[in-house]
Design goal:
The chain is α+β, with helices and mostly antiparallel strands. The protein is built from 3 helices and 15 strands.
Length: 307
């Protein structure tokens, strides 16, 4: 039985059901709980930042991982880089400048190349119609960094070619010193454009873009690469700051000992009459070269017998 009190107003008040009308007072948050929540939020934010930083570092250290989302891009880059990393050849031929009026100036061209654990070495000698001779040794590291040594006509000792001269015409042709190696395949910024046909060939179209870390006179290089053999058939290079383009066309593609190569490369600078043609007349795709074969101060490529 619930005890009750009788008020003068005649209202019974239940002692056990005393109700307070109005807004309940808010309880103060527990300071320790707030501190814990802040700690969890800070930990989560820090973890996300660390994860993003790790992904960036991994993509810089291993650029191929950044291409994993596009298997065709990875196929093109891997195939192109592996082709260069298997080079071991000697060749002889001629380098010819064809003027707009048809006049030709030809040079004897002798070269050899080999990929070593620290990168590619290419030694070539270009002999003019007279007694003048130009020798150059190019070294491209595994990351695509290039250095060039030269012995120019009239000089007896090799010297490092300053970067300012890399874009100079090689013995007056449309090829520059830098054009002798395909360093653009090793740049970090690579993009695969829509596939196209070049002539009768189905091609991947790869656009290589140079960064501030790349020593090059080119802003970008676009390569049309045959899908079946992963060898370029057409290349367009855009020099930095000029907008002018240089075009390269590869002819006579052939496979010797499992290695694809071109027997002729034509270079043409847009807006300039004429073109230059590098023709390979004979050579060996497996020359078994060693480091001693690339001493520019001791070795001369002229007159070497092709094995």
């Amino acid at each position: 039985m619930t005890p009750t009190l009788r008020m003068n107003s005649g209202i019974r008040v239940c002692c056990r059901r005393l109700v307070t009308w109005g807004t309940r007072p808010r309880s103060r948050p527990d300071p320790s709980a707030l501190q814990y929540a802040r700690s969890v939020a800070n930990w989560a934010f820090g973890t996300i930042q660390a994860s993003i930083a790790l992904l960036v570092l991994l993509s810089l250290a291993h650029p191929s991982r950044a291409f994993a989302a596009n298997p065709d891009l990875e196929t093109v880059l891997t195939g192109s880089r592996q082709r260069i990393e298997k080079l071991d050849y000697r060749v002889t031929g001629r380098l010819t400048r064809v003027e707009g009026n048809g006049k030709r100036t030809s040079y004897k061209f002798v070269a050899k190349a080999h990929w070593f654990p620290d990168g590619l070495r290419l030694l070539c000698e270009i002999s003019g119609p007279g007694a003048e001779k130009t020798s150059l040794l190019l070294h491209m590291s595994v990351s695509g960094h290039v250095t060039i040594e030269v012995v120019l006509p009239g000089e007896k000792a090799a010297s490092v070619l300053p970067f300012e001269r890399w874009n100079d015409p090689l013995v007056g042709t449309d090829f520059s010193y830098e054009d002798m190696v395909e360093s653009h395949f090793f740049w970090k910024h690579q993009e695969l454009l829509a596939p196209e046909k070049y002539g009768a060939r189905d091609c991947f179209v790869l656009k290589s873009m140079s960064g501030s870390q790349d020593r090059t006179y080119y802003d970008s290089v676009t390569s049309w690469i045959d899908r079946g053999i992963l060898y370029p058939v057409h290349v367009v290079k855009t020099p930095r700051g000029t907008g002018q383009q240089k075009e390269f066309i590869y002819y006579g593609l052939r496979q010797v000992g499992g290695v694809w190569s071109a027997t002729q490369v034509e270079a043409k600078l847009h807006g300039k009459p004429g073109s230059s043609i590098l023709v390979i007349e004979r050579g060996s795709g497996k020359a078994n070269l060693g480091r001693k074969d690339f001493d520019i101060s001791q070795s001369s490529a002229q007159g070497e017998k092709v094995k």
